[in-house]
Design goal:
about 350 residues; alpha/beta; Quinone Oxidoreductase, Chain A, domain 1; Rossmann fold; 2 domains; seven-stranded mixed beta sheet; six-stranded parallel beta sheet; 20 strands
């Protein structure tokens, strides 16, 4: 089968690799339909690593996908050939202490699509996944929506980790797909006032058009000064969705005492720092987000029931043969890109 492989820094090639086969009775062979280009994919594309996870070339990346069921193992009970599915890219063991505590997202034996040391990605014609990772959508969602449900479920999980009692005023620092997913989910969950920042003007316009009450570019204004001028007591929750030291610093300044900092963005560096004076004196709760946990079905149903709109995030579509162009576009933040989707 054909697959898109990283062969070096910023080098992608379509190569031939063996078609995967069903190995377990509960396995499902999937024919890929759509793959979204994620920021973490771009980290591997540009730097060859995320923290301790280092690429060994050639390597297949990609994890946000939808597919059509091609073949099923003899133990598969619910999924059938021809079903259209959204794919949950994280395979948990269900045996370790984390899984038994209901924390499958921090499974000690986690295997995640497109993660070095865990498994190849989905930018290829076929993949094999366990039945439990295949969420049937059929006519409920388009294949693009099904693929987009993967980053959106991170937004749903993140929003739920932050939103609680007395959490009506929030700030989201970073207005890319994950920041916009957090905004959409948080608004649904009850956030009344949403402040959003980004250095890309086109993204701020999209955020404003789809739910943000206030937008600001930190390259043009002092966002701490402006937000605290409007909210002198501070905001209740900050979702840090840029993975930058500057946004962490801003978050601690604009949060109210007793507020919550939710770290969603993936930093490129291994170490970040906090102003412990702000964090301690304000008694800030800091929450790290590791993707999502048990919110995939919920995210799919929110989209299917039209309780949320995520379609606006898709700005570009590419054929599989042109997938390398999608990565160049996203890595360069070109042409107002928010989300680029690759179609098979």
């Amino acid at each position: 089968m054909k697959a898109l492989a990283l062969t070096g820094l910023k080098k992608l090639e379509i190569i031939e690799v063996p078609t995967p086969k069903i190995a377990s009775d509960t396995d499902v062979l999937l024919k890929l339909s759509v793959v979204g280009v994620c920021g973490s994919d771009v980290h591997y594309y540009e730097t060859g690593k995320i923290g301790s996870q280092v690429v060994k070339y050639p390597y297949l990346i990609g994890h946000e996908c939808s597919a059509i069921v091609e073949q099923v193992g003899k133990g598969v009970k619910n999924v059938k050939i021809g079903d259209r599915v959204a794919v949950e890219p994280a395979v948990s063991c269900h045996q370790c202490d984390q899984c038994k505590m209901g924390r499958e997202n921090t499974c000690r034996k986690l295997k995640f699509l497109g993660t070095p040391g865990q498994g190849d990605g989905c930018l290829c014609e076929y993949i094999v996944m366990p039945e439990e990772n295949c969420f049937i959508v059929n006519d409920k969602l388009t294949q693009i929506q099904a693929a987009l449900s993967e980053p959106f479920t991170i937004g749903v999980y993140s929003a739920k980790q932050g939103i609680g009692d007395n959490c009506e005023k929030i700030a989201i620092l970073g207005s890319g797909p994950i920041g916009l997913s957090c905004m959409t989910a948080a608004k649904f969950l009850g956030a009344k006032k949403v402040y959003m920042t980004d250095k890309i003007i086109s993204r701020l316009g999209v955020a404003k058009s789809h739910g943000a009450n206030w937008i600001g570019n930190p390259d043009e204004i002092d966002i701490v000064k402006e937000i605290t001028r409007i909210e002198p007591l501070g905001v209740d929750v900050v979702y840090e969705c840029a993975g930058q030291q500057s946004t962490i610093d801003q978050a601690l300044e604009i949060l109210r005492p007793g507020g919550k900092l939710v770290l969603v963005g993936i930093p490129r560096q291994s170490t970040m720092s906090f102003c412990i004076d702000y964090a301690r004196r304000k008694e800030i709760t800091i929450v790290n987000i590791r993707r999502q946990n048990r919110t995939t079905h919920e995210a799919i149903e929110l989209i299917a029931d039209k309780k949320v709109n995520i379609d606006f995030m898709v700005t570009h579509k590419f054929a599989f043969k042109d997938a390398a162009q999608a990565f160049e576009l996203v890595a360069g933040y070109k042409d107002g890109v928010i989300k680029a989707m690759i179609e098979f």
